[in-house]
Amino acid sequence: MKKSPHVIWVCPSSKSFYRTKGEVRCRPGSVIPRLAEKGIRLNVLIPHDPTLLPKTRLAPGRTTHHTVKLSQDYGVEIIKLTRGSISPGIYMAKTPPLEPALTSAVFAKTAIALANQLKKPVDIFHIFDWESAMLPLFLEMEKNGSKIFRETRTFLNVNSLREQGNFAPAILAY
After folding, report:
1. Who contacts 114 (Cβ-Cβ below 8 Å, separation ≥6)?
2. What's the number of domains the chain is made of?
3. What is the pTM of this model?
4. Is 1 domain-assigned?
5. Which pLDDT belongs to residue 163?
6. Which DSSP string corresponds to 70-109?
């Protein structure tokens, strides 16, 4: 029997999610629930969004602290927004306030920290837009025979570079 792939979906925005009746859900039309229904083991990492947090105090077991190492160490929190082993598992990364490029690098490293926290081999990191585009580089640097990342592939999905940041007109002319 073929095993279902484990995918970590790395979203630079929380716009595709909302909270209702104590649960965080995907917005209608999202492909994420359909993938989970087909048996794909899916975990989603989004940036911190206070509107998705529960109104009551968060249980301590749903928050884990990690140290992300770049040129210096940065403390990050990974908050599990879904209960138990519900698929897709939705996680939120709370990073320190930093400049945008550094925030993107810390967010990409946080996705690797989430994979290590889950302790399950990752088949695919599905990455969206330039905010998390450094993840493949960091993944290659961290593989080192790790059983979690041995067979990992990355898939980068960029909508439009024109809308992704400040680029010189000469670059956008292509």
Report:
1. 8, 43, 45, 78, 91, 93
2. 1
3. 0.85
4. no
5. 57
6. SSSEEEEEEEE-S-TT-SSEEEEEE-----HHHHHHHHHH
